[in-house]
Design brief:
Length: about 220
């Protein structure tokens, strides 16, 4: 097998980190009187990290998982070259748990979207995703199964891979060795608290549904 470093160096440019900020209201009351606070309950901001993949460079379109960005108050994207940009939500397909974001930037590198229908168990793949807000991480493995499902993930036709995933990889890309996206990482496959887990990905063929919803 040829060294993977040249391929990794190319595909990693299309993968971005995403910071999702949400705001929650605490049901706080005054401790001495039991009355509600005069200015209303305090609000708490929480940050969650994931990833996405650029699929249209000229229009700044990014695909990620819908469960990552749903309910976000603000969205921030970190490019592979270190630039940090605000992003805005464009459209989602809840059935397949995919969402589209848009950023305004020059010099973007888009990934090629492949045909997930052509994927077969045993195919070599690269999983590229976030790592809790730091630089993207890369892992290597195979397609271990097709047509999988998992409670909590709307898509019922997932690709399973034995490529290990860091936390923060949701929304990242599963590439074949031609450098084509064949899946969008949805989650790790186990329910433990381990730092890395086998992966499940939404088939890339579902991305077309987002374009349909944009029109």
């Amino acid at each position: 097998m040829q060294p993977l470093a040249p391929l990794v160096g190319k595909v990693i440019q299309s993968v971005v980190g995403i910071r999702v900020s949400t705001e929650t209201t605490a049901a706080a009351r005054s401790m001495d009187s039991g009355a509600e606070l005069p200015n209303g309950p305090p609000r708490t901001t929480n940050d969650v990290y994931g990833a996405g993949v650029i699929i249209k460079a000229e229009s700044g379109l990014i695909v990620t998982t819908n469960h990552l960005v749903s309910g976000a108050k603000t969205l921030a994207v970190r490019l592979s070259d270190g630039r940090q940009l605000d992003a805005r939500f464009v459209v989602a397909d809840e059935r397949y748990d995919l969402a589209m974001l848009r950023i305004s930037a020059s010099g973007l590198t888009a990934a090629r979207v492949g045909r997930s229908i052509d994927a077969e168990p045993g195919d070599f793949v690269l999983a590229v995703g976030g790592s809790s807000g730091s630089a993207p991480s890369v892992s290597f493995g195979i397609v271990s199964a097709l047509h999988r499902s998992r409670p909590g993930i709307p898509c019922q036709d997932l690709i399973q891979t034995d490529a290990l995933l860091d936390r923060g990889s949701s929304g990242g890309a599963l590439f074949n060795l031609r450098g084509e996206v064949i899946g969008i990482v949805a989650a790790g496959a186990d329910e433990t608290e381990s730092e890395r887990a086998f992966g499940l990905a939404i088939p890339s063929d579902a991305i077309d549904r987002l374009y349909i919803r944009m029109n």
